[in-house]
Amino acid sequence: GATAKAIRTAIITGANTGVGRHTALGLAQHGFHCILACRSAERGKEAVAWIAEQHAAASVETRELDLADFASVESFAAHVRCDFECLDVLVLNAGIGGMGRALEATPDGADHDLVYRVNFVSHFLLTCRLLDLLERGTSARVVCVSSVVHRFAHARWHEHSHFRQLASYEKGMPGLSKDHNAKAPQCSTYSASKLALAVFAAEITRRYGAR
User: Fold this and answer.
1) From what superkingdom does this record's organism come (predicted)?
2) Is the pTM of this model over 0.85?
3) What is the band of 146 on the pLDDT scale with cuts at 50, 70, 90?
């Protein structure tokens, strides 16, 4: 079964479309049992069917994960921990685009924007909850999907209080067009989330890369 030690297991968030779906296909083609962590169960099932069409021998399933909701993250991680002895690959891919998107509160009213919650904070929580499974994996890897726009993150990207001030952020960002500068608050939130992922990847490498 998929829980056997000999079969490598991978989790890919946001695997119902785009980069996530093709990453899952590639891992399945290399013999991994792939768990597609998707907010929509229906779209997750469609991705499973698509992967099976591309690779008949694929071992793949989908599980619901809503990164906007910490309770969903905790539930997802708890079920994975019950069903699997180890984890070999965790791909932190899911995300919300920030350009042109109005600042939006998280469902629980926490002190950070929805984009930052979905793109980084919940991925951080998920990794922490699955860390012991990763430590038991075979040459386990955590892959953080970032973006070149991490270069435009505000200097105070790591301060939660900064997100309450984004709506009045008027300085603009070097290297962006006038139209893009008009969307600076949203771009800054998205950029901050992508910089946080890059820093997280570096810290994971520093702590566990030599193992």
Assistant:
1) Eukaryota
2) no
3) confident
